[in-house]
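Good morning N.,

You mentioned wanting to compare the apo and holo forms, so I went ahead and generated the holo version with zinc ion. This is what I fed in:
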Amino acid sequence: MDNCLFCKIVRDEIPAKKIYEDNDLIAFNDINPAAPIHFLIIPRMHISSLVECEDSHQDLLGKMLLFAPKLAKEQGCTEGFRTIINTGRVGGQEVFHLHIHIIGGKERLPVMIHQG
Ligand code: AMP
Ligand code: ZN
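and this is what came out, ligand included:
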């Protein structure tokens, strides 16, 4: 995907603070962190969002999710973290390349969604 921001990060066409990469995944720090630790895990392949995932992506999705706590711990999330996947307009997705946010630090995170 020529114009996809995260594909450009995958191809090293724009800089990012990469903290992990392998054949399937990369992880890098969010440019606008919501907490002391905030990074994104993305597949190398372009999938625009969770709603576009298919059965063929099952292993990749499993790998991303299983990898999240390992990297979170390595990055300093020793007592938990928040995992967010924003999907589509209602979900507030801004970059349409599938990504998992991992957000944490030493302090308890604020309540995510207020009701009423
Ligand atoms: P979302 O709303 O889930 O699509 O979130 C997209 C995230 O990507 C936001 O948290 C942005 O701060 C982050 N982001 C946008 N551009 C970059 C970039 N060049 N490097 C790192 N993170 C970015
Ligand atoms: Zn992409």
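The domain at 5-95 is CATH 3.30.428.10 (HIT family, subunit A).

Happy to go through it together on a call whenever suits you.

Best,
F.
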